[in-house]
Automatic annotation (TrEMBL):
<protein>
    <recommendedName>
        <fullName>Cell wall cysteine-rich protein</fullName>
    </recommendedName>
</protein>
<feature type="signal peptide">
    <location>
        <begin position="1"/>
        <end position="19"/>
    </location>
</feature>
<keyword id="KW-0732">Signal</keyword>
<dbReference type="InterPro" id="IPR009030">
    <property type="entry name" value="Growth_fac_rcpt_cys_sf"/>
</dbReference>
Amino acid sequence: MAKSWRALLLTLWATQAFGQDAQIPLSSAGDSTAPSSALMGSRPLHREIKLEDIIVSSDDDGNLKCCPRGTVFNGNDCIFLDNPVCPEGTVLDGTLCVSVKPPSCPPGLEFNGHICVSTKPPNCPPGSVFDGTLCIAPSHPSCPPGYHYLDGKCVSDSAATCPPGFKLQHNTCTSSQSPQCPPGAHFDGKACIDVNPPSCPPGTTLVDNLCASEVKPSCPPGYRYGNNACVSIERPSCPPGTVFDGKVCRSDQQASCPPGSTLDRNICRSTTSPSCPPGSNFDGKLCSSSQSPSCPPEQTLSVNILKGKARCCMTGLTWDGSTCVLIPSDPSSCPPGSHYDGHKCVYHPTAEPSCPPGTVLKEDRCYASGAPSCPPGTTFDGEGCVTNESPSCPPGLRFNGQSCVASERPSCPPGTALSGQTCVSNTQPSCPPGTILTEGLCISSERPSCPLDRRWRIRFASSLITQNVRLVPLSMGKTVWQGSRQPALQIPCLTDRPA
């Protein structure tokens, strides 16, 4: 099979190489060397063969070979049959006999490749035309008297009406009378509100929709109530020689530094100034050379004070921070090497100022390339010599970066713990029986109640409901109150709905 494919590919290559006029037709069954006259007269001598024109053909022994459509495998080659195998008017196309004539349709119809279609467009009723899809009438749809056409519908010319005593408002028939509430209640625009607020048990008052005890939370003797806790009236205590400053026990003794140094904020600074190489002096930060930067002949050093930069300019020109300039009285009098740009003489420096050996140019001065040197046991910190030792404190104290403080934390009386600047009791403040401490108040376990003579409920707007709110069903003859703390907001009792 592989050999057959290679033979076929060689044939296709030869066909393209020699051109269609030089192609050799496939052999016939009668003569393997020349085509028959019948074949030459019934089909063209040359035909381009594409890959999709190749099909599998078998000989009488069942051997397979890939052959072009219209040929068969005779055991050796793909050949045309001498004798026609299809009826007259048809040709062999693979294994099918295909008519040489296309499908025909009745008069007035034509074949579109699939079905017979009319050559004339569809007919439309009088007064309408075919737009390629539908029959379109030039006039608009009509409606019965008293109606008009709007968006595909017949709309009445008359407006909607409401029963007597009602008026149309926002697509609803609204009564002209205001809602009526039972005696002792008033309408607030949404519901009937009882004129009296919810009531609380004796000894409690309504605070933020909860019943709070009139008695404040209490603490044992020696304590005061504050921030939901019992706070000791005694301040945290410190070791002798220290005082509590609100955070730590601070000593009144100053930290000390090694000999030859003094305390400077939180470091020990040497009293000896940093030393510099010969020919330079310490200017407070670096070793500045006693010699100024120098320039090539016929150029002078020019310093721009605003930018702190220096450059070598032609004599008579000054450095403005970007170039050397001179505003001349006569444009033709610019120094040699500079040019007039229409406003001033301009010279672009090509060389920077030079410094003595062992120094480098920084801004407008020459500085020693190394850092200032300090005595043994000290380090240069950019301002002076700092000892490698931290400030020290007396025994039992430590230096916290600002002062000497006790190594121990401030202590509190037994049963209390340090919290911020106070000693807080481990025991919670107490409340009267039947109440619990909640956000600084003794809250009753009983809920606020509403009048019993009617069916009442508590109104909760969606924006007012907070956590731990559980709404319960209403029942006739009972009152219901459900809520949680709402600062500066009082929820009233109200009827189920106005009459």
